[in-house]
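Morning run. Coffee first, then this:
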Amino acid sequence: MSFVIKIFLIIPQLIVLLSSNLFAINKINVSGTVHSVNGDLLPNVLITLSTQKNSALTNRFGEFDLGKLFPNDTIYVSIEGFQKRQFKPSTNMEIKLFPKSSIQEKINNVRNGETLIIPPGIHYVYPDYNVDSTLGMSINYKTNVSIIGSDSSEIILMNEHADIFYIFESTNILIKNIKIGYFNSGNSSLLNIFRSEAVDFPKALAIAKESQGDNCIFKFDGKLQHTKGYLEPFVELDIGKIINIINSSEVTLDSLELISSGGI
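And here it is:
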């Protein structure tokens, strides 16, 4: 009888020991650098986790080290002026941050019946890679809203594979006195993944989703691909229009200068 009791006492201890060793093996060293889309290293970027308590700030060289982490966690990367990103932990991470669009924030905050004045100057805009990289600026569920440029107001989208303005479920929208277009179509920001980076399409798909978001276009093995599985030329999306109007009415475009090729 005592022998049986000893066995029952030993088994839970073995389970605990094996489990702790298994978790220790599963942990990986997580470190890397954070830089802007232009390649500038970013200091004082906050790195946090969804479930574990580790956190870090990048140093003046844009470097961070979170130590050993469970790989099934989620890393959040944030700094003022840039889009917040999230990633799965890995070793030697190279994290790219895209600028946050102040114009989009103003559009989001404008109330129905109000007028938004776009400041003078050239405004370079990136899509929100946390939401949909095929959309530039979105006007959603607005009524009686005017977006009017000052003298010499320009909005330049830094991704020629996205709509500059996407107008959805909105009524009586006026866009006036703005020059809009894409940035130098010869230098596209399209992600190009080579065989040296990804041996097959699933690996390339994972890289594209982590870099550009869950809804994006990328090139792999010489062909355009989409993370949703659409086939080139992406007739399901009807993307890359300068102004894309969906389920909206009474949209007025007045004194706009279109400086890129594309449709409306």
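Residues 235-239 have pLDDT under 50 and may be disordered. Good start to the day.
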